[in-house]
């Protein structure tokens, strides 16, 4: 497992923070195998580790931090770039694990909803959902070299799409983000990442032109 992969100890700690015994260690190994599937180039263990690094900086702002952290573990558990229901399937996988662990129905419903929020549909998010989605989009505000690497990784995941079509559709996605009045829903991420994110997006839109 790569050095930047989230650890088993962190996994166990997430479940303990929710007041239940840690889910089976085998579940952790299976989850890590999912994040190492061959169709992934960006949605990998590295992405998960980067998310946790950003999450650790804002954890104190969460209403139910254990639930947000569990949602992070599972938010890309299912990833097939040829499908449009990855978040729904990831949420369903998390729901099964939460039920097996004996998490109460209210918490299960909230975590399920948090994972669905990572579809990043336009709209106003608040509280824990805002934190989670900002963490997931933190890559947009990465230093230019990492952002450019991310863009190459996205292209790799969609290598089966002809380049002219990919460029057109990718540009539309990036322009949609740029058109938002605010890329990030929380003050921390707006202050620390929004200017760099807008610069990265503008540069990438021009490159896809």
Structural class: mainly alpha
> Could you give the distance between the termini?
38 Å
Element string (H = helix, E = strand): HHHHHHHHHHH
Tally of separate helices = 11
Work out the number of β strands.
0
Uncertain ranges: none
In which range does the helix fraction lie? 55-70%
Arithmetic mean pLDDT:
94
General shape: globular
Q: What would a concise description of this structure say?
A:
The protein has helices at residues 8-17, 25-34, 45-58, 65-74, 86-101, 105-117, 127-136, 144-157, 163-179, 187-192, 194-207.
List the SSEs and their pairings:
Layout: H1 8-17, H2 25-34, H3 45-58, H4 65-74, H5 86-101, H6 105-117, H7 127-136, H8 144-157, H9 163-179, H10 187-192, H11 194-207
Helix pairs in contact: 1-4, 3-7, 4-6, 4-7, 5-6, 9-11
Folded structure, characterized:
This protein has 209 residues and is mostly helical. It folds into two domains: 119 residues, no CATH class; 69 residues, no CATH class. The chain is 64% helix and 0% strand. The protein has eleven helices and no strands. Helix 3 crosses helix 7 and helix 5 runs antiparallel to helix 6. The model has no long low-confidence stretch (mean pLDDT 94).
List keywords for this structure.
single chain; mainly alpha; 2 domains; 209 residues; globular
């Amino acid at each position: 497992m790569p050095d930047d992969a989230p650890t088993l100890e962190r996994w166990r700690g997430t479940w303990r923070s929710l007041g239940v015994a840690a889910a089976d260690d085998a579940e952790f190994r299976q989850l890590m195998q999912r994040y190492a599937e061959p169709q992934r180039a960006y949605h990998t263990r590295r992405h998960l580790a980067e998310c946790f690094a950003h999450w650790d900086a804002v954890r104190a702002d969460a209403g139910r931090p254990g639930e947000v952290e569990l949602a992070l573990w599972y938010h890309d558990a299912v990833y097939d770039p040829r499908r449009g229901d990855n978040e729904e399937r990831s949420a369903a996988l998390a729901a099964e694990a939460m039920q097996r662990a004996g998490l109460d129905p209210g918490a299960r419903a909230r975590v399920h909803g948090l994972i669905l929020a990572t579809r990043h549909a336009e709209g106003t998010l608040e509280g824990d959902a805002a934190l989670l989605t900002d963490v997931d989009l933190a890559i947009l505000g990465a230093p230019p070299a990492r952002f450019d690497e991310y863009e190459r990784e996205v292209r790799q995941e969609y290598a089966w799409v002809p380049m002219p079509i990919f460029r057109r559709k990718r540009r539309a996605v990036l322009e949609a983000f740029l058109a938002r009045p605010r890329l990030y829903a929380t003050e921390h991420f707006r202050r620390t990442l929004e200017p760099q994110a807008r610069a990265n997006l503008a540069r990438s839109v021009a490159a896809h032109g």
